[in-house]
Amino acid sequence: MALYQLFIIATILIIANTLTDEEKKEQARVVVDKRFHSLGTVRRRWKQDDTALGDYRRFECRQIYCSGTEQDPAEICWHISIHIHHETQKQFDRIYLYEYGGTTNDNGEAFMGTTQRINQAEFNTNHEPYDIVGTEIRFNNQQLSTTNGRPTDCHTFCYIYKPPITDDTKTIIIQAASNKLSVRVDPDDEISMEPKGSLGEWAQWEANTYDVASGTGGFFKEIRLKNIKTGKWARLENNGDNIEVTGGTGTADKARFKILNVKDGEEIWTKFESKQYPGKYIEVSSDGNSIIVGSGVSNNAMFRMYTSDAPPVAQQTPPEQPVTAGQPLVESQPLVASQPLPAGQPNN
What we know:
The chain is mainly beta. It has helices at about 5-15, 20-35, 130-135, and strands at about 45-50, 55-60, 65, 75-85, 95-100, 110-115, 140, 140-145, 160, 170-175, 180-185, 195, 205-215, 220-225, 235, 240-245, 255-265, 265-275, 280-285, 290-295, 305. β13 and β14 form a beta hairpin.
C-alpha cells in the first residue's frame, strides 16, 4: 500500500476518534441518504456471507463508503451490509453501516452507525422507491432476482399463533398491523416499547396464556408478556395511562391482558385489553414510533402473534374461523401460500 494511502487512512481514523457517537451516526445516515437510494454511476458489488443462512442472507458491499458534508468535511469510512429475509418477512430487511477501522465495544464489535429498513418509507425518504434487492444484490457476477436472492424457506416465527384451549407458554413475536414490524423493547432505554423490531431478542416475548372465566358462563383467553432480552414483564402503570416493561413477576392484574380477536376484511387480528383497566388497549402511536395505551378503536390496536413452532399435522385441517371474545382460540396454523405473512408497508 502506498504511503499516501496509509496517510489518508491514518488521518480518517484520527478524525473519527474526535467525533461523538451521535455525530458518527449522523454521518452514517448521510451515506445511506445520499448513496443508497439509487444505483448511481458506479455499480456496487455485493458478496454473500455464507455464515448467515438461517433467518436471513447477509450480503457485504465490496466498496467502502466514506461520509462527510460540505459544512463538516470530517470523514468516516463504513462497511456496508444488507440482511435479506424470506419473501414473507421482507419487511425485516435492513441495511447496516459499521465503522471501518474504528473503535470497538467491550464485545469487540465495531461501532454501528445506523440500521435502516430498505425498500420502505424510512429508507426512501424524499426518494422514489428503489428495489436494492432485486436491482443490485449480486453474487458470482450474476444478477439475483428478488426471489432467488432471498432464503428459500422461512425458519423462525413463521406460524400464526393462536393460543390453545389449555394453558400454554410460547416464545412469540408480535406484529403490528399498522406497519407489519414487530413490537420490541426500545434498546435505548429498556423500559418503553416501540413497533420497530424484527426477529431478535428485543422483539421476542415469552407469552403465557390462560383460560379465564368471563363471569357470564363462558371463557376468554388471557396473556402475560415477558421480554426475552430483559426478562421483564409488560404492564400498565400510572393508573393505566402508560405501558412499561418493568414487571418483576408478571402476576399482578396490570401485567395481564385479555386477548380479543377481530376481523378486518378477510384477516383476523388480535387486540390486547388490560385486565386491571378495562377499555384500555395496547396500541401503536399515531406517528408510528411508540407503543402506547389507547382506546382500542383504531387499526393501531391490532396485532398478530407468530411462533416458530408448527402445530401438529392433525390440527392443521380445520379452516380458520373468526373468533370473538368468550370463544376459545384454536391451535396455530402454519404459514402456507394462502396465508402469507403480510409484506411490509411504508412507515426502523
